[in-house]
Structures are given as structure tokens and as C-alpha cells.
Amino acid sequence: MNPYFATDATADSAGADSPLDAAAGIAIAEGVDCTADAIACLRRAGVPVTQQRVEIARVLFEAPVHLCAEQVWDRVRERTPETSRATVYNTLRLFTELKLIRELSVDPQRMFYDSTTAPHFHLYNVDTGELRDLAEDELTVLGRPRLPEGVELQEIDVVVRVRSRPGHTARA
């Protein structure tokens, strides 16, 4: 099994044999050339395929990542320098709406985009700006809050924020 296999429980697992199936919350291992898989993923999601969207999908789905829009843009421009910032922002919004990625608000200065859509928690280092996934055994949330009448639980996001102690250099 792929080490980055993280299937969303609500997704149809029929396409789980594909190394890239972002609609199911699956990212492939680093180093795999996934242009064909990126194209197939975009088509399954009903996204019109362009070179820029394929490159954005490659950046997001070659390995589990937590990137801000500027980081995505920088990586995409390595292969397609003509890609505009607006194209990246618009594509990130589209991928988020289609639930191909998750948008995370962990820093008031920028949004992060998470390629793993399955429910999970995060650790954010406020000093370095590094965001990483917490392993399932690192944090347990017990119970659910009482909700007001007429609403339902959409999701629970947990971000553990850390910072360096004076005189120490912390790592996320």
C-alpha cells in the first residue's frame, strides 16, 4: 500500500488503484511523474484541463503538502513560468470548492492548502511557519460539542500551535 494513502471515508474507493485520486484524499509518493494521473484526476472532478492546472495538481498531489498560494505559485513556475498568480489563486479556490484540497486558516497572514482531505489534525510552528500533520496517535479528541438546535456538525479542525522557548530553537 502507498505510504501516502489517506482515503476520505466518504469517498468512493473505486479509483483507489490510481496513484493519484485527490477526490478521495489520496496523494502519491514523491518522485512519481504523475502528469497522466493529474489529468485523469482533473477530468474525474469535471475540471477543464489546462497545462497550468495540471502543474498545480502535480505540485499539490505528488506528496502530502501544506503550502500557501505563493509556495504553490513558486513551484508551478519552475515548470511553467508563464503561470500567473491569479491562475494559481483561482485554481486553488476551484480545487477547494471541489474538495480536492482543504483550505486551512492557521496563520492570520496566509492560508495553507492541504493535499490530504481525510480528517486529521495539525501542528503549526508560529516561529518558522511550518505546518505538519499530527499522527493519529499524537492527539485524541473525545466527544463532540453540544450544538444549538437546527445546526449540524460540518467538521472539527484542530491546530496545535507551538513556538520556541526563549533560548531554544523549536522544530514543528
Could you describe the 3D structure shown?
- The protein is α+β, with helices and mostly antiparallel strands.
- The chain is 26% helix and 14% strand.
- The protein is built from four helices and six strands, in the order ααβααβββββ.
- The relative contact order is 0.14.
- The N terminus is likely disordered.
Got a strand count?
6
Secondary-structure element sequence?
A: HHEHHEEEEE
Poorly predicted runs are 1-32
Rough outline: globular
Distance between the termini: 27 Å
β content, as a range? 5-15%
Main beta sheet strand tally, sense and closure: 3 strands, antiparallel
Helix-strand makeup class: alpha+beta
Can you list the strand order of the major beta sheet?
1-3-2
The average pLDDT value, as a whole number, equals: 80
Keywords:
172 residues, alpha+beta, three-stranded antiparallel β-sheet, three-stranded mixed β-sheet, 6 strands, globular
